[in-house]
């Protein structure tokens, strides 16, 4: 079964990605191949289950971004910091 994982670098925890995999090790490998994480050594990556993402592996990027925002992540979009506290306002203003 494909599961959601948040993979972070465990040096400064400043970079994280959501990936879908069957195991934590597979999630680390998938994340390590992505541009955001390819500068980190495999051993420096930590994979944590993201149960909120289960079943969303076929969602498009914008839907996944909204899922992440509603689950505590933030993104900078067109110079605006978008997080769970202001996402509805940003949608109403047409920013996202």
Overview of this protein structure:
The structure is a single chain. This protein has 96 residues and is of the alpha+beta class. Helix content is 25%, strand content 25%. The protein contains three helices and five strands. The strands form two sheets. Strands 2-1-3 form a three-stranded antiparallel sheet, with helices on one face. It has a two-stranded antiparallel ribbon with strand order 4-5. A hairpin with a 2-residue loop joins strand 4 and strand 5. The longest helix has 9 residues. The protein is globular and about 40 Å long. The mean pLDDT is 92.
Topology (elements, then pairings):
Elements: E1 3-9, E2 16-21, H1 24-32, E3 45-49, H2 61-69, E4 75-77, E5 80-82, H3 87-92
Antiparallel strand pairs: 1-2, 1-3, 4-5
């Amino acid at each position: 079964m494909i599961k959601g994982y948040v993979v972070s670098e465990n040096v400064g925890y400043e970079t994280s990605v959501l990936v879908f995999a069957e195991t934590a090790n597979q999630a680390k490998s998938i994340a390590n191949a992505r541009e955001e994480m390819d500068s980190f050594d495999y051993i420096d990556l930590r994979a944590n289950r993201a149960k909120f993402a289960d079943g969303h592996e076929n969602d498009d990027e914008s839907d996944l971004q909204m899922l992440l925002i509603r689950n505590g992540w933030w993104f900078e979009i067109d110079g605006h910091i978008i997080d769970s506290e202001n996402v509805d306002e940003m949608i109403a203003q047409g920013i996202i």
